[in-house]
Amino acid sequence: MNEGHHTEQYNKLAAYRKELLRSNPGFYSRDQNNDGWQILTAVGVDANNGMYPIAFAIAEVENQEIWTWFLEYLIGDLKTVNDRSYAFITDKQKGLGNAIAYLFPGAEHRHCIRHLYNNFKTKHAGAHMAGEFEYQVTGGGTIGSKHAVDLGRHLCTCRRWQLSGIPCVHAICALRMRKIGKPVEYPIAPPL
């Protein structure tokens, strides 16, 4: 187990790389001469919802070229045949979405709600007055359902937001309505 300050650990990366190359024939390392290193990771989820590392790389930047390189090695190591059996949940890193779409055209790709939420909180920081985040959203089509949405308390009368922790289509319409200042029709959501 590595202990100590992160700077000390960072300074050990070159020695760690050298040992990996020596002790693992076939291990690939791309030389980098930059102090702004980024750690790229691929993590899996097992049947018990446990997470485990699949692959990692240390790169000088995160861009489409580097992510494509990383994913190409992941494809080779996993011996992927059917890209439709993979799902990617990512933050909104530049280039990663394009690399996934290029190399795994049939895979599911979603953005991590925690990252989206933190970005939203940063962009819309500050307190709000009571009622400022409350909306009534009316659906289009022949059904025309109505739902009350409270963006501040993360509530919707459809209860999807409360059950999943992910904003429902009504909440998303309320967010868009708040941003553009006029009502937005939403597509009819499938039943739970």
Structure description:
By secondary structure, this protein is α+β, with helices and mostly antiparallel strands. It has two domains: 110 residues, Nucleotidyltransferase, domain 5 (2-Layer Sandwich); 53 residues, no CATH class. Helices cover 35% and strands 19% of the residues. It is built from seven helices and seven strands; from the N terminus they run H-H-E-E-H-E-H-E-H-E-E-E-H-H. It has a three-stranded antiparallel beta sheet with strand order 5-6-7. The longest helix has 15 residues. It is elongated and about 65 Å long. The C terminus is likely disordered.
Summed up, what is this model?
The chain has 192 residues and is of the alpha+beta class. The protein has helices spanning 6-11, 13-23, 64-78, 96-103, 113-123, 160-164, 169-180; strands spanning 38-45, 51-59, 87-90, 108-111, 134-138, 146-150, 155-156.
Key phrases:
alpha+beta, three-stranded antiparallel sheet, disordered C terminus, 192 residues, 2 domains, 7 helices, single chain, Nucleotidyltransferase, domain 5
Helical run tally: 7
Number of domains: 2
What structural class do you assign from the helix and strand content?
alpha+beta
Approximate strand percentage: 15-25%
Low-confidence stretches: 126-130, 188-192
Protein name: SWIM-type domain-containing protein
GO molecular function: zinc ion binding
Organism: Rubus argutus (Southern blackberry)
Keywords: Metal-binding, Zinc, Zinc-finger
